[in-house]
Amino acid sequence: MGKTLVEKIWDAHVVKSDVGFPDILYIDTHFIHEVTSPQAFDGLRKRGLPLFRPKQTIATADHNVPTLHQDQPIKEELSRLQVDMLTRNCAEYGIELYGLGHPFQGIVHVIGPELGITLPGATIVCGDSHTSTHGAFGCIAFGIGTSQVEQVMATQCLLQQRPKTMKIEVNGHLGAGVTSKDIILYIISKISAAGGTGYFIEYAGSTIQALSMEARMTICNMSIEMGARGGLIAPDETTFDYVKGREFAPKGEQWDLALSKWKSLYSDEDAVFDQVLTFDATDIEPMITYGTNPGMGMGITQHIPSSSSQALSEQPSFEKALNYMGIEADAPLLGKEIDYVFIGSCTNSRIEDLRQVAEFVYGKTKSPNVIAWIVPGSKQVEQQAIAEGLDKVFEAAGFQLREPGCSACLGMNEDKIPADKYCVSTSNRNFEGRQGPNSRTFLASPLTAAAAAITGKITDVRALMVENAYV
Fold it and tell me: CA-based Rg of the chain, rounded to a whole angstrom?
């Protein structure tokens, strides 16, 4: 019997496997940041342990960093303490750190791929839920807890139960205004925020194969939002072309050897998945969430579901979510006035996202009632955007291009959405208070977010595209 891609990579990294026990899984690359690493470093100190393989650990500051005036001291005391502690810990243990001011600094799941650190066939972990982003390259990549961060630091291995496997196929051509963010929001809305629990998901099908690497990263990034352990896409020529020539990618003979190995990374035709789901791309329209988890999503032209459409056990939480959001069942979201737009996060802050938004807003001006932030995912993205003149386009349209960081994805830095304000966000989570205490979040694609900024309300971007002959 053939193997799935997950099984191939997993088996190649198992150090020891015994019946009735978790596998000991070798980890190729360990990313760390300022939030989940301090306790792990303290654990090493208390045990008197060295960092086992410092060259396989890469650090950056992203969650707590401000996105304005990064050349100045961080104002928030806790944020400053965590960033300073990361600097000290990396210096003590000999870890490469891309901190503030470094040309490679940025969100951990943005810098790994753009630097060529993320490579097909690898096992990658980080103390961050959205490590699944790296799976776009054909990796087993997943988030871990603080105690596991320490475990990897000490041994370069993890105790892990072998996951179940799921294949999600999406076939067909996407309609105008529909992006990879809409694909993943659509899938989650169909299978729920818990539908992938216990699985590693392989995304396949003609729609997925036609996506760019940056679009694939958006898909894999949100695998965790359906409860999955991780998500991945088999590497192909699109993958290889993206990786080749990047800063830390293999070169010369090493590239040829690596490429030969990477071309074997696919699920065999007779591989058996624990579950297979299939979707038609033509059924997907621009998506938006209405509730307080990413599974509470709908097409932009649809109406919010009724409470009676939910399972009886889920009705109280459904009604609580609508009450928190200040919206009503059976009502549309089109035309709903909003206050903020946030384009950024490890889901949608890459240069392709910024180019898409700049092309759409060129010659337009945002609504005076909306504050619009565009936060690049890394210094390299920021510098490329400036080199291409995207900053001028954003400025003319009234959008503020800020400096790299996790920003308003989560209320852990200075970029918070005020209480009771509505934000259309390209991030990955819309939990209560996620973007700031009592803030209200609608998740959407960069195009849908940009359309909301221009009109000041939730808008079907396709109407503006037709009106302006954009398509």
Answer: 22
Q: Is the residue at 281 inside a domain? A: no
Residues above pLDDT 70, as percent of the chain:
99
Query: Does residue 79 lie within any of the structural domains?
Result: yes
pLDDT score recorded for residue 470:
42
Q: Is residue 469 over pLDDT 50? A: no
Same domain, 98 and 243: yes
Q: What is the DSSP string of 76-143?
A: SHHHHHHHHHHHHHHHHHT-EEE-TT-TT-B-HHHHHHHTT-S-TT-EEEESSGGGGGGGGGS-EEEE
Both 197 and 331 in one domain: the answer is no
Residue of 223, 217, 211 whose CA lies nearest to 185: 223
Residues 132 and 170 in one domain: yes
Contact partners, residue 361, CB within 8 Å, separation at least 6: 393, 394, 397, 399, 450, 453, 454
Percent of the chain with pLDDT over 90: 98
Average pLDDT, the chain: 97
Taking the CA atoms of 222, 225, 228 and 229 in sequence, report the sign of the dihedral they define. positive
Q: Residue 466: pLDDT above 90?
A: no
Average the pLDDT over 431-450 and give the result: 98
Q: What is the pLDDT of residues 330-377, one digit of tens each?
A: 999 999 999 999 999 999 999 999 999 999 999 999 999 999 999 999
pLDDT at 471: 39
- Contacts of 317 by beta carbon, 8 Å cutoff, 6+ apart: none
Q: Is residue 298 part of a domain?
A: yes
* Number of domains within the chain: 2
Is the per-residue pLDDT at 279 higher than 90?
Answer: yes
Closest by CA to 203, choosing from 226, 31, 194, is 226
3-state percent breakdown (helix, strand, coil) of the chain, nearest 5? 40, 20, 45
- Edge-to-edge order in the sheet of strand 96-98: 96-98, 57-60, 29-32, 123-126, 140-143
Give the Cα separation of 339 and 456 in Å (integer). Answer: 7
232 found inside a domain? yes
Mean pLDDT, residues 208-232? 98
Same-domain status, 94 and 217: yes
Residues 291, 271 share a domain: no
The answer to whether 257 touches 227, Cβ cutoff 8 Å, is no
Tell me the CATH number at 371: 3.30.499.10
Residues 306, 188 within the same domain: no
Mean pLDDT, range 165-184, rounded to an integer: 98
Class of residue 420 by CB neighbours under 10 A (exposed 0-12, middle 13-18, buried 19+): exposed
Residues 156 and 33 both lie in one domain = yes
Question: In the structure encoding, which two tokens stand for residue 14, read together?
Answer: 């198992």
Q: Which two structure tokens, joined as six digits, stand for 384?
A: 């490329």
Same domain, 13 and 143: yes
* Local confidence band at 1 (pLDDT 50, 70, 90 cut-offs): confident
